[in-house]
C-alpha cells in the first residue's frame, strides 16, 4: 500500500506542504489542475510546475484526481470527439512527467453530493452530511447556491461557472437513461484505454457518490454488479477502479471488502473512509475507525492485505476538528488521524503475517 494525500494546489488549499510532510508514511500528492475547465487539455508547463512543487518536498505526483470528463461525453453528443481528443492530449502530457494513475468519474452534472458541509456532531466536530428528505424537497439550484456559499474555496465538481448552466444541463439530461450512459462510457473507454495502455497510465474510475440517483439523474457506478459490467466494457487492466469505500459504503447493501477481493487486480487507487448510514438513507461522514461508522474499515484493510495490494491509497474525507479552517472534508487533522489508523492496521497485519 502506497500512501498518498490529496492536495488542491498552491493558493487553492489551506494546508502547506510542510505539514503534509509531517504525516507519517505519505509518499506522494494526489493533485489536479482544478482551474482548467473539463474538456480542455492541461498545459504541460502547468503540469511541470506542480511536479516541481511536489518534488521540493520529496513527494511524487503519480496520482491525478481528477481529469474531469466534459458533459458532452457523458451525454454522447457529436461534440464529444473534440473533448476526447483533448483528454488524450492531457493523458499524453501527464505521461511525460511520469503520472501512473488517473482518477475520474462519470457522474452526470454533479460530482459528489451532500446536503450539509459542516453538520455539527455531538463532540463539537463537524462533518459532511447527506439528508435524503432534503434532497427530495430542495431545488438543485438552491442547494448549489448554499454549497457554493459555504465551501470557503471552490470545490471540484461545483464550479460556479459550470453550474450557472445548471438548468440547461438538467434539460440536456432529460430522457438520458442509464443504458445511454453505459453506451457513452463505453465509447469513451474504447478511445481512451489504448492510449492509457501505450503510456502505462492506469485509468481508475471513481464510483458515484452517493451510489444512487440524485435529483433524478442517471447513475451507474453504484454496486458490485455494475462494477463487474464496467470492467467488461473494456476488459483491460488499464481500465480500472478507484475503489472508494465511503461512496460505495453509503449503500448498506454494498460489501466493500468483498469488492476488494473480487476486483483486486483492477484496483489502482483506494479511497478509504468510513460513513455512518441510517435506515432512512441519510449518512454522515465519521472518523476512519471501524466502530464509528457502518463501513467495516478493518475488514476492508484485511482484504487489501490478503490480496497483497501494492496500489496507491489515501484517506478520503475527514471530519473538521480542532477548529481547523479547511475545505469541506479535506482538513489536515482528521485525515492525518485516518492515515495513522490505516497504518496501524496495516503494520499489525504485516507483523502477523511475518510470525
Ligand atoms: C470527493 C471525492 C470526489 C472524487 C471524484 C473523482 O471528495 O472523492 O470528488 O475526487 O469524484 O473523480
Ligand atoms: Mn472517494
TrEMBL record:
Q: Which InterPro entries match?
A: Man_deHydtase, Xyl_isomerase-like_sf
Matching entries from Gene3D superfamilies are given as:
Divalent-metal-dependent TIM barrel enzymes
**What EC number(s) has UniProt assigned to this enzyme?**
4.2.1.8
According to the UniProt entry, its GO molecular function terms are: ferrous iron binding; manganese ion binding; mannonate dehydratase activity
Please name the SUPFAM superfamilies in this protein's record: Xylose isomerase-like (SSF51658)
Q: Does the keyword Lyase apply?
A: yes
> Which keywords appear in this protein's UniProt record, sorted alphabetically?
Iron, Lyase, Manganese
- Needed cofactors: Fe(2+); Mn(2+)
The reactions it catalyses are: D-mannonate = 2-dehydro-3-deoxy-D-gluconate + H2O
Q: In which pathway is this protein known to take part?
A: Carbohydrate metabolism; pentose and glucuronate interconversion
| Taxonomy, superkingdom | Bacteria
Keyword Glycoprotein tagged: no
Q: In Gene Ontology terms, what is a biological process of this protein?
A: D-glucuronate catabolic process
- The top EC class is lyase
Instruction: Cite the Pfam families for this sequence.
Output: UxuA
Q: Which NCBIfam families match?
A: PRK03906.1 (NF003027), uxuA (TIGR00695)
- According to its UniProt entry, what is the function of this protein? Catalyzes the dehydration of D-mannonate.
Q: Which family does it belong to?
A: Belongs to the mannonate dehydratase family.
Protein name, entry field: Mannonate dehydratase
Species per Swiss-Prot/TrEMBL record: Halalkalibacter hemicellulosilyticusJCM 9152
What broad taxonomic lineage does this protein's source fall under? Bacteria, Bacillati, Bacillota, Bacilli, Bacillales
Amino acid at each position: 500500500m502506497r500512501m498518498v494525500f490529496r492536495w488542491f494546489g498552491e493558493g487553492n488549499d489551506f494546508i502547506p506542504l510542510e505539514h503534509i510532510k509531517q504525516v507519517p508514511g505519505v509518499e506522494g500528492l494526489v493533485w489536479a489542475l482544478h482551474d482548467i475547465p473539463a474538456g480542455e487539455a492541461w498545459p504541460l508547463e502547468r503540469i511541470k510546475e506542480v511536479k516541481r512543487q511536489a518534488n521540493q518536498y520529496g513527494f511524487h505526483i503519480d496520482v491525478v484526481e481528477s481529469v474531469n470528463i466534459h458533459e458532452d461525453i457523458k451525454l454522447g453528443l457529436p461534440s464529444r470527439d473534440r473533448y476526447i481528443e483533448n483528454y488524450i492530449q492531457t493523458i499524453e502530457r501527464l505521461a511525460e512527467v511520469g503520472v501512473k494513475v488517473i482518477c475520474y468519474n462519470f457522474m452526470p452534472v454533479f460530482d459528489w453530493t451532500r446536503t450539509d458541509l459542516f453538520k455539527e456532531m455531538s463532540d463539537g466536530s463537524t462533518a459532511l452530511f447527506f439528508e435524503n428528505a432534503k434532497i427530495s424537497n430542495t431545488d438543485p439550484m438552491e442547494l448549489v447556491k448554499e454549497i457554493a456559499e459555504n465551501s470557503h474555496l471552490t470545490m471540484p465538481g461545483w464550479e460556479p461557472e459550470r453550474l450557472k448552466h445548471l438548468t440547461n444541463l438538467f434539460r440536456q439530461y432529460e430522457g438520458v437513461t442509464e443504458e445511454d450512459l453505459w453506451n457513452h462510457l463505453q465509447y469513451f473507454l474504447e478511445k481512451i484505454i489504448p492510449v492509457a495502455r501505450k503510456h502505462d497510465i492506469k485509468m481508475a474510475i471513481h464510483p458515484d457518490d452517493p451510489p444512487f440517483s440524485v435529483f433524478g439523474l442517471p447513475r451507474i457506478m453504484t454496486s458490485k454488479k455494475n462494477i463487474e459490467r464496467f470492467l467488461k466494457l473494456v476488459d483491460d487492466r488499464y481500465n480500472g477502479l478507484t475503489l472508494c469505500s465511503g461512496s460505495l459504503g453509503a449503500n448498506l447493501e454494498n460489501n466493500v471488502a468483498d469488492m476488494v477481493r473480487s476486483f483486486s487486480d483492477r484496483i489502482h487507487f483506494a479511497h478509504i473512509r468510513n460513513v455512518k448510514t441510517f435506515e432512512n438513507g441519510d449518512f454522515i461522514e465519521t472518523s476512519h475507525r471501524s466502530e464509528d461508522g457502518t463501513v467495516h474499515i478493518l475488514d476492508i484493510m484485511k482484504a487489501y492485505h490478503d490480496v497483497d495490494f501494492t496500489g496507491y491509497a489515501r484517506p478520503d474525507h475527514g471530519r473538521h476538528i480542532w477548529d481547523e479552517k479547511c475545505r469541506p472534508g479535506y482538513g489536515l487533522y482528521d485525515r492525518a488521524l485516518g492515515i495513522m489508523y490505516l497504518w496501524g492496521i496495516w503494520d499489525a497485519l504485516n507483523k502477523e503475517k511475518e510470525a
